[in-house]
Amino acid sequence: MKIYLCDDEKKILEDMKQMVQQCQKNCEVNTYTSGMELVKSLKEAVCDILLLDIDMPGLSGMDIAKWLVNLEKKPLLIFVTSHDELVYESFQYHPFGFIRKDYFGNEIKKVLDDCVKESLSSTKYFNFRTEGKDIRVPLSEIKYFEADGNYLKVFTDNGRYRFRSTVTAVENTLGHQGFIRIHKGFLVNQLGVRIFSGDEAQLTDGTALPIGKTYVEEAKNKLMRYMR
Question: Does domain 126-227 have CATH number 2.40.50.1020?
Answer without folding.
Answer: yes
